[in-house]
Amino acid sequence: MFQSLRFAVLGLAALCLSACVAGDIPYEELEARYGGPTSQYLELPDGVRVHYRDEGDPQAPVTLVMVHGFAASLHAWEPWVARLKDDYRLVSLDLPGHGLTRAPEGYQSSPEAQVAMVDAVAAELGLSPFVLAGNSMGGGVAWRYGLAHPQKVRGLVLVNAAGWPAAAAAAAAVEGEGDSRPMVFKLLENPLGRSLLRNLDPRPLAGRGLRQAYGDEALVTPELVDRYVELARAPGHRAILTDPRRRGAATAVTPETFAAIQVPTLVMVGALDQVIPPERGAGFAQGIPGARLITYADGGHVPMEQLPDRTAQDLRVFLESLPPAS
């Protein structure tokens, strides 16, 4: 009964939104608007044109690579870049389907493909063992990279990371109990919702979803909403974002999976996160040997943007504690 009611509500919401269609915005226009003086582009063999920024001190003893969350972009890391660039080399990038990164038609995103892209960028830039940070979906990319390429990683920083196994919590969410996630995530689980989102103007959903993620009305400025909405309308982005295959093959991830991560790890969790339950984010600190957990009582899903001074200082302490690179 609950399942039928849920789909009926989602179907009605999707029908109401179906009139709000919007076409693509050309990359040239988006690059002029959201690129910057430090923006660079890298052509990969699979046809992906990666937008990235390589900032800070290129001779710094620590290089930090940063991966954003679902529907976000490298702009999410700007508060950290502003506070850390004098002392570290900072590389941020847009994943396929996000920001200003272009992917060929029919490109299939998956966690494995995201890990491979990060590895390809690191190889092209000649990065020696680096620290890898990720927020939300990007946190899932980070810990998967740490498992796949342990010799290339000096440390991990997981910020409200996705991917902690929580079958019981997921089952409750399917039944509609205690599911506080933004509506876009619920629509993505529904075939009709996914179909409409491929052509939908994201703006009707963006404001509320961003307010839930940021947890602070003052941070959700018209400029922030415009950036999320317009970058989502880049050619091909909505097809990738709504492709159910983007989650990759169903693999057995258990708490024991994370025992294989042997590099220093910092776990940051916003206690007010409405996108990923805080206890799931904190789970990584239990599963990864020696991981350090910092919980921000007044933080939400993106504490690096909500609490930039505190989180950057905590990150700095972690980076300075790392053993020298081999």
What brief labels describe this structure?
eight-stranded mixed β-sheet; 41% helix; 8 strands; Rossmann fold; 326 residues; alpha/beta; single chain
Structure explained in plain terms:
- Helices cover 41% and strands 14% of the residues.
- With 326 residues, it is of the alpha/beta class.
- It contains 14 helices and 8 strands.
- It has helices at residues 2-17, 27-34, 78-84, 111-124, 137-148, 167-174, 183-188, 191-197, 203-214, 222-232, 237-241, 278-287, 303-306, 308-320; strands spanning 39-43, 49-56, 63-67, 89-93, 130-135, 153-159, 265-270, 292-296.
- An 8-stranded mixed sheet has the order 1-2-4-3-5-6-7-8, sandwiched between helices.
- The model is unreliable at 168-177 (pLDDT under 50).
- The chain has a single domain (2-320), classed as 3-Layer(aba) Sandwich (Rossmann fold), CATH 3.40.50.1820.
